[in-house]
Design goal:
By secondary structure, the protein is an alpha+beta fold. Helix content is 31%, strand content 30%. It has a 5-stranded mixed β-sheet, with helices on one face. Strand 1, helix 1 and strand 2 form a beta-alpha-beta unit. The model has no long low-confidence stretch (mean pLDDT 92).
Length: 105
């Protein structure tokens, strides 16, 4: 786990989305990926958070988005965020979640 930036700026709702989506991603990696490593990187920028969850597993050619990944998309969309997925070598989930800076409230 790697975190860059000021964690205090991020609202609890955003941390909740990161937590729930990360839990889903790690569960999927442990269940399907046959990986030996999972790397999570959270970058807190001025008004958005980027969270990347990557494993070194087998990936998949034609991944079917089940309920878990659909849930990730829905949670991100609640805050006008996005989730993108790559699976060429291993599996990678990239979340971009905008937020209002708590110090400006």
């Amino acid at each position: 786990l790697e975190v860059e930036g000021d964690k205090e700026k991020v609202p609890e709702k955003i941390w909740g989305i990161i937590r729930d989506n990360t839990f889903e991603a790690v569960t999927n990696a442990l269940r399907y990926a046959k990986c030996s490593e999972i790397h999570i990187k959270i970058c807190i920028l001025h008004k958005l958070v980027r969270c990347v969850i990557r494993d070194n597993g087998v990936g998949c050619e034609n991944c079917r988005e089940g309920m878990g990944i659909q849930g990730m998309h829905l949670r991100a969309e609640e805050v006008n965020g996005t989730v993108s997925i790559r699976s060429e070598s291993g599996f990678e989930i990239n979340m971009i979640l905008p937020f209002a800076d708590r110090t400006e409230e």
